[in-house]
Amino acid sequence: MRLGYVSLFLAAVLAFVSLVVGAFPDDILVLAGESLVPLLVRVTLVAAVVLAVYGAYRVVVSWAASTVERRRRQSFVNAARLVAVALSVVGVLAVVTERWLGVLVSFGVIGVAVTFALQQPLFSVIAWVYITAKEPYTVGDRVSIDGTKGDVIGVDLFVTKLWEIDGELVASHQPSGRIITVPNSAVLSSHVFNFTWEEFPYVWNEIEVQVAYETDLPYATETMQRVADERLGDEMESRVEEYRSLVSETPVEIEVRERPSVNVSARDSWIELRLRYLVHPKQGQRVKNELYREILKEFNENPDRVAFPVSRNR
After folding, report:
1. pLDDT tens-digit profile of 140-170?
2. What does CATH list as the number for 203-300?
3. Averaged pLDDT score across all residues of the chain
4. Distance CA 182, CA 304 (A)
5. 126 vs 193: CA distance, rounded Å
6. Are 166 and 176 in contact (CB under 8 A)?
7. Which of 100, 170, 202, 304 counts the most CB atoms within 10 A of its CB?
8. What is the rounded CA–CA span in Å between residue 151 and residue 165?
9. Any idea where the domains of the chain sit in the sequence?
């Protein structure tokens, strides 16, 4: 922030200098028959405008670093940077041409031409405004954009950067280590899935266990429910209450169970048991591993009650 205040101070000094120089007679500084006084005034004013805008930008960014929430900080800084650049360009051109209205009109004419020449970058900027205003996602969210899944690490004027999840290299909702750059314009033309929406950052997951028809189904389903309930039950119940509260504010009616449940499906050679539960997306694979280990341990300790299919056509 100190740099910002120093820049503002220097801008004020240069503005004062330009007033002093402007009071000089035109013939006090002459080169090749031309007075240098107007040129010096413009140069000092241009420097003052640039320093003033930069100083204000630095002060605002420093304030945001300690005040604005981390998830929204980058969007705020991007907006401040865009405003600073626009003010600098308009201010410098206005000082050079001495016609503020003419500069703004020229910007309008140029903007029409740029619209046709740079449609894709322009759409990305428009999409950035939409992302900043409506917040379909923010930094830190886990999202899927146009088929690309990852954790958002940055959103600037033109692109969104993601730490890739899954992808070609790994599976099971694990990071691949790659950074994917997605044009912001994709947000306007494709589906965006946010797995960690701020008001309800949880999703339903399922794990599947295949058992033989000879299995004691009441025992198998009760065991799966009990294992999941001991691990997630109370926490899931409170989260489902939050979900129901959000749903009640919409015209949608959805029936959800407040604790883990098991769905049963009959297949040709086996029975499929699907355990359904609520979890934070970034903990999904870890929780799934823990549940699988506990469930299979219980099943294997009771081979007389749980049998697994032997067919290899699964």
Report:
1. 899 999 889 999 998 888 899 999 988 777 7
2. 3.30.70.100
3. 82
4. 53
5. 20
6. yes
7. 202
8. 7
9. 2-117, 134-194, 203-300
